[in-house]
Amino acid sequence: MTRIEQIIADKISENRSICVICVPLIAMKPQIIKGNTHTDHCGTLRFVNDFDLKDVRRFYTILHPDTSVVRAWQGHETESKWFFPLKGSFVVAWVKIDDFDNPSDSLKAEYRILQANEPEVIYLPQGYANGLRALEPESQIAVFSDMTLEKSLKERHKYPPEKWFNWYNLNN
Questions:
Q1: What's the rounded Cα separation, in Å, for the pair 135 and 113?
Q2: What are phi and psi of 112, to 5 degrees?
Q3: Calpha distance 9→54 (Å, rounded)
Q4: Is residue 21 one of the residues assigned to a domain?
Q5: Structure pTM?
Q6: pLDDT at position 33
Q7: 165 located within any domain
Q8: N- to C-terminal Cα distance for the chain?
Q9: Which DSSP state fits 109?
Q10: The domain that contains 151 carries what CATH number?
Q11: Could you report the average pLDDT of every consecutive run of 10 residues in the chain (172 residues)?
């Protein structure tokens, strides 16, 4: 149970009121936001029109020069992130954290392969750890966040890359 879930459970058990706007955040699950392409005589347009940027506070890009680097795991109790491939392809994985200070080794990670030629965005709500690895050299991905860098660094938890996922054998 996350700290937020524990706070809400405690308040409910004490018959105390809770902020109604907080409850939907707990139910949030990772989402795939589909995009598309359009090609005409001017070139090709890649778009994800259903990606609503109203909650985004910042973004950055990551360039992986080769496929050996694994950037994992970063856990966020209150930060949400979106991932969009700019060039090449990535495997992006995520896991719902049960206890940020001492997460279980038996948590099950999920993953998706993002390819720049198939536009889509992965949304990971708060309460998840994430990681990624390029599947092609020189791949690049954009990461959007709903939190300032200063706040993100204060609530980030790091875990070893091999903890929940085999980055080099996606069939297992």
A1: 9
A2: -150, 145
A3: 29
A4: no
A5: 0.82
A6: 97
A7: no
A8: 27
A9: P
A10: 2.60.120.10
A11: 59 59 61 95 95 96 95 94 97 97 96 96 97 97 96 93 93 64
